[in-house]
Design brief:
- The protein is an alpha+beta fold and 230 residues long.
- It folds into 2 domains: 2-94, Orthogonal Bundle (GTP Cyclohydrolase I, Chain A, domain 1); 101-229, GTP cyclohydrolase I, C-terminal domain/NADPH-dependent 7-cyano-7-deazaguanine reductase, N-terminal domain (GTP Cyclohydrolase I, domain 2), CATH 3.30.1130.10.
- The chain is 40% helix and 21% strand.
- It is built from 8 helices and 9 strands.
- Helix 3 (44-61) crosses helix 4 and helix 5 packs antiparallel against helix 6.
- The longest helix is centred in the N-terminal third of the chain and has 18 residues, at 44-61.
- The chain is globular, with a radius of gyration of 20 Å.
- It starts with a helix and ends with a helix.
- Mean pLDDT is 88; it is low at 1-12.
- The structure holds zinc ion.
- Zinc ion binds next to loops.
- Residues 1-21 are annotated as: Disordered.
- It catalyses: GTP + H2O = 7,8-dihydroneopterin 3'-triphosphate + formate + H(+).
């Protein structure tokens, strides 16, 4: 019965691609993280309990002995890690609260915060995406604390993701918060689903970019690349 459901799903066509193609080629369907309308009806404690039960089932099916001292705490640990850490960015309650400050010094050049290390997870394989984000903006008269730029990156990284969406979500959020179109995001990341499985390419990295407002010109892009590479 279960096998039937899976094969039906795999046969389902989306713009000519099967769901298998979409996963293997890391295509994605929307800029918003696809969420159920009732995603937050269950409390976090209930979610942890459910995930723990379901994860023990996966381990059990794999043939692992859940009475072993080393393994028996794993389902609870995974559940806690999913909800409180690596997928905590699904919950809007965890979105960083950002205060804007007046740009006292009238610094109206670009500000670049580079090499923000992040850990995310591929939504197609649930294995890590590890990378660096570089974000830049030109103040519209308001500035935010540098640590907030980092927190915004981390919030959107803590979801099942595709790199293009992560880039866009960070860009859109910065635009909204900073009340300017003049925002840029560059992400350079390694996908463990590409290096450790599938094509087993250990050397490739994926670069995605978002250039808004003044950043969307060849000169500004070159200037930005220059800051990031130095
Ligand atoms: Zn993947």
């Amino acid at each position: 019965m279960k096998t039937e459901t899976i094969s039906q799903k795999n046969g389902h066509q989306l713009n000519g691609f099967t769901t298998e193609d979409i996963g293997d080629d890391h295509l994605f369907t929307s800029l918003e993280t696809p969420m159920k309308p009732n995603a937050f009806e269950m409390s976090n404690d209930e979610k942890k309990q459910r995930i723990s039960i379901l994860f023990s089932e996966i381990m059990d099916v794999l043939g692992l002995d859940l009475t072993d001292d080393s393994l028996k705490g794993t389902p609870d640990r995974v559940a806690k890690m999913y909800i409180e850490e690596i997928f905590s960015g699904l919950d809007p309650e965890n979105k960083p609260k950002v205060a804007l400050f007046d740009n006292k010094y009238q610094y109206n050049q670009m500000l670049v915060e580079k090499d923000i290390t992040f850990y995310s997870n591929c939504e197609h394989h649930f294995v890590p995406i590890i990378g660096k984000a570089h974000v830049a903006y030109k103040s519209s008269g308001k500035v935010i604390g540098l640590s907030k730029l980092n927190r915004i990156v981390q919030y959107y990284a803590k979801r099942p993701q595709v790199q293009e969406r992560l880039t866009q979500q960070i860009g859109n959020e910065l635009k909204n918060i900073l009340e300017t179109e003049d925002v840029a995001v560059i992400i350079d990341a390694k996908h463990l689903c590409v290096s450790s499985r599938g094509v087993k390419d250990d050397t490739s990295a994926t670069v995605t970019t978002y250039y808004g407002g003044v950043f969307n010109s060849p000169e500004k892009i070159a200037e930005l690349q220059n800051y990031i590479n130095n």
